[in-house]
């Protein structure tokens, strides 16, 4: 069973087109050129990405991936303005977690 979605985060996701702010930490998203990305075709030249290292979405990503058997991975929130899609994009550096 999937965890319940936070209604406040879901409301902010619905407004991301207008705010260009991360729905999890509410910081500004950064415009990133992905047109030459070797990881695969995004179908759009620009994604907006949350680069806040304290964002809860990013901070929880290592634990989420580790539970799926992916050790050392991390992701950040990305928004595709052409598709109005919000989701994960692989992060280069995993956040540090202790414990």
Structural commentary:
The chain is an alpha+beta fold and 99 residues long. The chain has one domain. The protein has 3 helices and 4 strands. The protein has a 4-stranded antiparallel beta sheet with strand order 1-2-3-4. It is globular. The chain starts with 6 loop residues before the first helix and ends in a 9-residue tail after the last strand. The model has no long low-confidence stretch (mean pLDDT 84).
Q: What's the count of strands?
A: 4
Q: What number is the mean pLDDT?
A: 84
Number of discrete domains: 1
Q: How far apart are the first and last residues' alpha carbons, in Å?
A: 25 Å
Largest sheet, strands/sense/barrel: 4 strands, antiparallel
Radius of gyration: 14 Å
Number of helices: 3
Quickly give the structural class.
alpha+beta
The rough form would be described as: globular
Which oligomeric form is depicted? single chain
Low-confidence stretches: none
Helix amount: 10-25%
What pattern of helices and strands is seen along the backbone? HHEEHEE
Biggest sheet strand line-up: 1-2-3-4
Percent range for β-strand residues: 15-25%
Main attributes of the structure:
99 residues; alpha+beta; 4-stranded antiparallel beta sheet; 3 helices
In short:
This protein has 99 residues and is of the alpha+beta class. It has helices at residues 7-14, 16-19, 56-67; strands at 30-33, 46-49, 75-80, 85-90. The protein has one domain.
